[in-house]
Design brief:
The chain is mainly beta and 394 residues long. 11% of the residues lie in helices and 34% in strands. Strands 9-12-11-10 form a four-stranded antiparallel beta sheet. Strands 15-16-17 form a three-stranded antiparallel beta sheet, with no helix packed on it. It starts with a strand and ends with a strand.
Length: 394
C-alpha cells in the first residue's frame, strides 16, 4: 500500500499467502512440484517451494489512483463559545480554501472554524493598496486596518474566499481586473458623487444574478450574492441589505426578531431571514447577542487601543480584552510597539498609525508603512495610472 501524506495515492493489490497452518512443512519429496499459477500474460508458472513457506504477492500492473494532495490543516484550539447554535459544517458552496480546520477540545468539538488567510506582509500590502484605490479609501489607513484582527470579522473583502483574494493579488488590470474579474464586484461612481443612503438595496442585472448594492465614498458597490454566500438571492429591508446564507445557516424571522448567534457568526434579520453580520470565528472571539458584537475572552476593558501581550496583539473586543497570535494574521509577524502604538509587524522602522493616511509618492511609486517597515508599490505596474494625492490613481 502506498500512503502519501495520510492520503491513499494508489491501490496495493494483496496477493496470496501460502503456507501450512501448523507452522511446520516437510521437505520436498519426489513429485512435489510446488505451486502452479496460471497467468493471463505468461501462461502457467511453476513455483517450487523447496520446503519453505511461500509468500506470494501478485500485483496488478495498473496506474495508481491519485486522490490529490492533502488539504492544509492548521490545528488551533478554540475556547468554548456560548450561545452558539449547532455546527453548520463547512461552507456548502465547497469553497474550502477559505477555511481552516481547527482542533476543538470543547463541548462543540469537531466544528469547522473560519480563519484569517495568513497572507505574508507583501501580500497584505498588495491587497490593501488595491482595495484602497478601488474603493476610494486612504491606503495607509487600509493597511493598518488589515493588520488588525477586528478588520476580518466582516465586510466586502473578508467575505471572499482566501483563494480568490490570493489570485486577485496577481491582477495588473487596475480596478476592473481586481474587482470585477476576480472578486465579482461591480463599482461605478454615484450620480453627483454622493449617496443619499449607504444602503441602496437589491438589484438583478441578469436573471438569477441578484446583487446586494450599497454606496460608500461616492461609489455604488454591487456584490453578486452567488459569490458571497453561494446562493443567488438578495434580501433587503429598511436600512439593510444582504445575501441570503445557505439554508442550513439561516432561518425565517421578522424585522422585530432580535439578533442571534449561529456557528460563530452574529446574524440579524433582513428581509425575513437571518443574514451574517459579523464573523467572530475569524479571531476566535465569542459571539454575544447581548453585546451585539464579537466579545473577547479576557478582562473587562474600554476604548480601542491595541497593545502587545508578549508576541500577541491585544484588542478590546466588545468590552473585553482579546489576544491574537500576530503570525496567524500576518505570516512571520509579531507584536511591535512604536510611538505608543502597538501593531503586528516585522520591524519598527516606522509607525503605521502615525504615517500619512494617503502615503507618499516617489514618482509613480507609493510608499507606505507596512508592519513597521517602509514598503513601495509601483502603481503603474499594479495597473493604475500613477501615484498622486491619496495613493494610486485610476
Amino acid at each position: 500500500m502506498i500512503v502519501r501524506n495520510g492520503w491513499l495515492a494508489g491501490f496495493a493489490i494483496a496477493g496470496m499467502l501460502v503456507g501450512c497452518s501448523d507452522g511446520a512443512r516437510p521437505g520436498s519429496a519426489t513429485g512435489d512440484v510446488g505451486l502452479v499459477i496460471n497467468t493471463p500474460d505468461l501462461g502457467p508458472i511453476m513455483l517450487s517451494d523447496a520446503g519453505e513457506t511461500l509468500d506470494i504477492v501478485i500485483a496488478v500492473d495498473a496506474p495508481p489512483t491519485d486522490f490529490g494532495p492533502l488539504p492544509d490543516v492548521v490545528q488551533v484550539d478554540r475556547q468554548v463559545v456560548p450561545n452558539d447554535a449547532a455546527d453548520a459544517g463547512a461552507r456548502p458552496d465547497g469553497a474550502a480554501p477559505d477555511l481552516v480546520l481547527v482542533t476543538d477540545t470543547g463541548p462543540d468539538a469537531g466544528r469547522t472554524l473560519r480563519s484569517f488567510c495568513g497572507f505574508t506582509q507583501a501580500q497584505m500590502l498588495a491587497l490593501a493598496v488595491r482595495t484602497a484605490t478601488c474603493f476610494n479609501e486612504p491606503p495607509q489607513q487600509v493597511v493598518e486596518q488589515m493588520f488588525r484582527p477586528s478588520y476580518w470579522q466582516g465586510g466586502i473583502i473578508p467575505s471572499r474566499p482566501c483563494s480568490i483574494l490570493g489570485a486577485a493579488l496577481s491582477s495588473n488590470g487596475g480596478c476592473t481586473g481586481f474587482l470585477l474579474d476576480y472578486l465579482k464586484i461591480a463599482v461605478q461612481p454615484a450620480p453627483g458623487g454622493t449617496c443619499a443612503s449607504p444602503v441602496i438595496g437589491c438589484r438583478t442585472p441578469a436573471p438569477g444574478h441578484e446583487t446586494a448594492t450599497t454606496c460608500r465614498n461616492g461609489l455604488i458597490i454591487s456584490e453578486e450574492c452567488q459569490y458571497v454566500t453561494g446562493t443567488s438571492e438578495c434580501l433587503s429591508s429598511a436600512g439593510a441589505v444582504g445575501c441570503r446564507p445557505q439554508p442550513a445557516e439561516t432561518a425565517a424571522c421578522s424585522e422585530a426578531s432580535p439578533a442571534r448567534c449561529y456557528n460563530g457568526r452574529l446574524q440579524r434579520c433582513v428581509g425575513g431571514a437571518y443574514v451574517h453580520t459579523l464573523d467572530c470565528d475569524t479571531s476566535l472571539t465569542t459571539c454575544d447577542v447581548t453585546a451585539n458584537n464579537c466579545v473577547g475572552l479576557g478582562a473587562a476593558c474600554t476604548g480601542d487601543t491595541d497593545r502587545c501581550d508578549g508576541t500577541r496583539i491585544q484588542q478590546c473586543r466588545g468590552g473585553r480584552l482579546h489576544s491574537n497570535d500576530c503570525s496567524f494574521l500576518v505570516a512571520g509577524s509579531t507584536c511591535r510597539t512604536l510611538g505608543g502604538h502597538s501593531f503586528c509587524g516585522t520591524a519598527t522602522e516606522c509607525d503605521p498609525a502615525s504615517s500619512p493616511p494617503g502615503g507618499t509618492c516617489e514618482g509613480n511609486t507609493l510608499v507606505l508603512c507596512v508592519g513597521g517597515t517602509l514598503q513601495r508599490v509601483n502603481c503603474v505596474t499594479a495597473g493604475f495610472l500613477g501615484c498622486g494625492v491619496g495613493g494610486c490613481t485610476h
